[in-house]
Design goal:
Number of domains: 2
Radius of gyration: 21 Å
Largest sheet: 2 strands, antiparallel
Strand content: under 5%
Length: 147
């Protein structure tokens, strides 16, 4: 099968095997100086993105839903609980500060973007009535901030 002028590769391993392989590669690659600057989840994301775009991994599969609904929340909970009980509260707060700061910046950016979207679609472009634009802005905020 051809896409444009490039042939599609006919071999694609099962999605679960691709995900496990990408995760293993990311954990091994993080020992290199360049990859050390990135986290294993980011390396896994970049690996799977590359494999999917190369046609070596399907773009959609039930295994991805399982990862998003089961494995990701479990990984987040494990990461949060992995600090030793002997560590004081101030140590935990100082370790969590960069993540909390990034979340706050992202939340503020999401709210600001939603307000700009509401203003643009109701006043400047007049695409939506204000009530519909407010619902869309609220859905975006709730989705991306975690509501």
């Amino acid at each position: 099968e051809m896409v444009g002028s490039l042939p599609l590769l006919s071999f694609a391993p099962p999605p679960a095997a691709s995900l496990l392989g990408a995760s293993a590669c990311a954990c091994i690659a993080r020992r290199s100086p360049i990859a050390r600057a990135l986290s294993p989840p980011m390396l896994t994301f970049l690996t799977t993105l590359t494999l999917s775009n190369a046609g070596l991994m399907p773009a959609a599969a039930p295994a991805y839903g399982i990862c998003a609904s089961r494995a990701l929340p479990l990984a987040v909970a494990t990461a949060l609980l992995s600090s030793t009980p002997e560590a004081g509260t101030s140590d935990r707060l100082s370790a969590a500060a960069p993540t909390l700061c990034a979340f706050c910046v992202g939340a503020i950016g999401t709210v600001a973007g939603s307000l700009v979207m509401h203003t643009a679609t109701t006043r400047w472009m007049r695409l939506w009535p204000p009530s519909e634009a407010a619902c869309a802005a609220g859905c975006l905020c709730a989705t991306y901030i975690g509501g």
